């Protein structure tokens, strides 16, 4: 019981006297004088209420301490997660920067390739046109002897072409020679 022990706060004070109800429970006689008895009762009540208040405060303090310990461990894990996320973000930033450089390079190359394609189409059409023009100016005769040279070519063609085509190659106004 709280009234049986001397209080730690009041070292050097004598042990407090028992209340009448406490004395009855312990089969002791109540304090001798009424005035003394009332004073003891008030001091016991104050000590008891202070003791109960102190007990409640200590209990709440220990509960708060347990909660704070739990919060400390959560804060540590949150701090570690934050550091990990910062490292991940830094990694992602460098990767994004690299990808942006690559995309810029690819876009530049795509633009150059499109320009080259346009130039290539133009050059192809020009080659086709030049080939067609060169073919129009040339007549190819197949199956004629290759050993004919110079003036012989003209006389050979003047003789053979009218036979093959039925056309004459005399200039207009010049009588036909027989």
From TrEMBL:
<protein>
    <submittedName>
        <fullName>Uncharacterized protein</fullName>
    </submittedName>
</protein>
<feature type="compositionally biased region" description="Polar residues">
    <location>
        <begin position="29"/>
        <end position="52"/>
    </location>
</feature>
<dbReference type="InterPro" id="IPR004244">
    <property type="entry name" value="Transposase_22"/>
</dbReference>
<feature type="region of interest" description="Disordered">
    <location>
        <begin position="24"/>
        <end position="52"/>
    </location>
</feature>
């Amino acid at each position: 019981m709280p009234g049986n022990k001397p209080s730690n706060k009041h070292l050097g004070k004598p042990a407090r006297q028992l209340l009448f109800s406490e004395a009855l429970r312990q089969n002791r006689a109540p304090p001798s004088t009424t005035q003394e008895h009332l004073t003891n009762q008030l001091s016991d009540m104050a000590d008891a209420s202070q003791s109960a208040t102190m007990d409640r405060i200590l209990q709440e303090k220990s509960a708060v301490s347990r909660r704070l310990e739990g919060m400390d461990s959560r804060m540590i894990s949150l701090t570690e997660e934050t550091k990990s996320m910062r490292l991940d973000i830094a990694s992602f930033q460098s990767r994004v920067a690299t990808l942006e450089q690559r995309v810029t390079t690819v876009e530049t190359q795509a633009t150059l390739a499109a320009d080259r394609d346009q130039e290539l189409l133009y050059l192809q059409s020009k080659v086709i046109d030049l080939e067609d023009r060169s073919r129009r100016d040339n007549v190819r005769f197949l199956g004629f002897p290759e050993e004919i040279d110079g003036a012989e070519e003209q006389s050979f063609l003047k003789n053979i072409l009218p036979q093959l085509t039925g056309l004459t190659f005399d200039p207009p106004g010049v009588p036909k020679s027989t």
